[in-house]
Amino acid sequence: MWAMIEKFRIRDWIADPVRAWLVTAARILARRRRRRPADPPVRAAGNGPPSPGMATSGEEVLDPMSTPARAPSLTETLEWKALVAHHAAIRDVHLRDLFAADPGRADRMTVEGGPLVLDYSKNRLTDETIGLLVALAERRGLAERIEAMFRGEHLNATEDRAVLHVALRMPRSARLVVDGVDVVAEVHAVLDRMSAFVEAVRSGTWRGHTGAPITAVVNIGIGGSDLGPAMATEALRPFADRRLTVRFVSNVDGADLLEAVRDLDPRQTLFIVSSKTFTTLETLMNARAARAWLVEGLGGDEAAVARHFVAVSTAADRVRAFGIDPANMFGFWDWVGGRYSVDSAIGLSLMIAVGPDRFRDFLAGFRAMDEHFRAAPFDRNLPVLLGLIGLWYVDFFGAETQAIVPYSRYLERFPAYLQQLDMESNGKSVTVAGSPVGVPTGPIVWGTTGTNGQHAYFQLLHQGTRLVPVDLIGFLRPPEPLADDPTIQAHHDALMANCFAQAEALAFGRTAAEVAAEGVAAGPRPPSDLPRQPTDEHDPRPAARSGGPRRAHRALRTQGLRPGDDLGDQLLRPVGGRARQGPGRPDRAGAPGPDGRRTRAPARSLDDRPHPALPSGASTVRRPALLPCPVARRPARRPARRRPSIGPRRPSPRIRRTYARTRKERGRPLGQDAPQVERCPDAVRPQARPRLPPPPRHPPAAPECGEDPRQEGADDRRHEARGRRSDGRSR
Length: 731
Description:
Elements: H1 2-7, H2 10-15, H3 17-35, H4 78-90, H5 95-101, H6 105-108, E1 110-113, E2 116-119, H7 127-139, H8 142-151, E3 177-178, E4 181-182, H9 183-203, E5 216-220, H10 224-235, E6 245-249, H11 254-261, E7 269-274, H12 281-297, H13 305-308, E8 309-312, H14 316-322, E9 329-330, H15 348-354, H16 356-375, H17 382-395, E10 401-406, H18 414-426, E11 444-446, H19 450-454, H20 458-463, E12 470-475, H21 486-508, H22 512-517, E13 533-535, H23 541-546, E14 555-562, H24 572-581, H25 653-665, H26 714-721
Parallel strand pairs: 5-6, 5-7, 7-8, 8-9, 10-11, 10-12
Antiparallel strand pairs: 1-2, 3-4, 12-14, 13-14
Helix pairs in contact: 3-4, 4-7, 7-17, 10-15, 10-18, 15-16, 21-24
């Protein structure tokens, strides 16, 4: 044993004793396994001659290769134990110290994958951390699993199916045969049918039952049949055809469908029912209610369903029974999981919104990331790095949640999409072999858009007691259709100033000395006692280095770790303001006062602060122009004088006379009380569908010759003038 220890250099023991001990222990165990005599293996019954290396006694023996040793679990591997020791050494290291000791940290820890840029330098990790995490991934066979997925092997052991969502975006020239079927050819056959249908709808060739063109599309689905297309349609709204209205219904609450069709014309509305088996309870209940609304609005003709309903399903018999022509059914396959299905026929509503060409660009973006995921080394692989950093926080730092904060109005539904994508995938408690999992398998994903979240829960992220990793997602430029608008550009500059400010504030915080210099009393605990909290940043430097404009689709998604040095109460806004001013600014604090403390600098608006993210020559954020108010200003109205209230006011004589006449006409003496409850005939509805608004009717036909339309309803107008209805009842 001492001979093995001596082989490890003394200076390595002094530099990193824990790692040295783990390496030595691994060598000792390997040496003992080599010296241990092999037990005679048991052989199956038989009269054949013993094979080499097998016992020749009378007991039955087996070939040693038929009884492999049990593979160690995740936490039993040396790589995992090395990570445990490394976490103990790094968990109290301040992020400020990591940047001070390594000036090139940000450049080295910035990775590009196609159009995306990841800056993970503001995480509580080092190069050694990444090396250990990559070694763990290699030990668990991640590279082999990636290749097996692209080959179409049955990785879904529970249902014995392939996991082939990557085939949905393969080019037409590719070929992938799974279970004797070329799945790429089938995928492009469905894409071609979708494109032809979408072109007919968008051009007006596809007409409704009455011959009117389609102007509104309502997608009915739930889970992956709703979250993916709804997210992508909202994200790509700047590229959508604004003449079309595209809405989504998922909740079985009748109000969801009611609000979706309230202002739509049934003659010009198309419904897409998305359900793989066409048995999903919520989807079918909403679909039946939508069909009843449509049939009622088109005069009760059930034949109208065939021109106003299409299906995304694989159950042709159930689709036909519903009233949808199977020719208008677009299918997909059992090897497509719901949470990965947005780029299959489930994305039909998205294709209608943006058009077939944009949809194929959408698939090309998926394909670019697939190729990067398959070919890039793990230490430069965006999906692998994000997954390993997530494991680092969940399983070693004990983080329980993950916040997704996109600084984009169009990514408002992206956190909800990631909730299903991440939590439904990792929400497991047993391994593939059926044994319990000994470590947490994933975080709880949540989040909202950026500046809204700053005024809601960022206080807890900055100064709370929980460890919450945060991903900040942003765009260097507005979407292409909006980039030429100076007002939009000015707002976008202010938006990204907030994003960069929050990233810097969360990453570096404030020390007690900085807080005291502003005359703010420090809290009861020193900064080192406050918990370290994670964050993300979108580093513009890779984009600036490229020397050319980047597409608006290129989101910069990063992760990072803040030191959590915020002291006192409500210091979030000062920290964000200091970060927006940039480091080393002379105006970060006022001049020293008589007591030696620095006074606060005068408050300045956001658009006057220097913008550290802008290119050279643009040191400040442009002041955004005021947007025109859609409602004209009205002159202020003088408040009415209110009489002092002395007891309950008595009704006027006119109201008392009307009330008495009404009770007399109803045959009830004035002293008799009215019944406690008058049951409305609509209080209990026998049908099990939501009460939808009546659809708009066709305009009334022209009057026959000899009729005077002015006389129609004259009785009603006379009675209304007297405050009475034409049927004799009071209004």
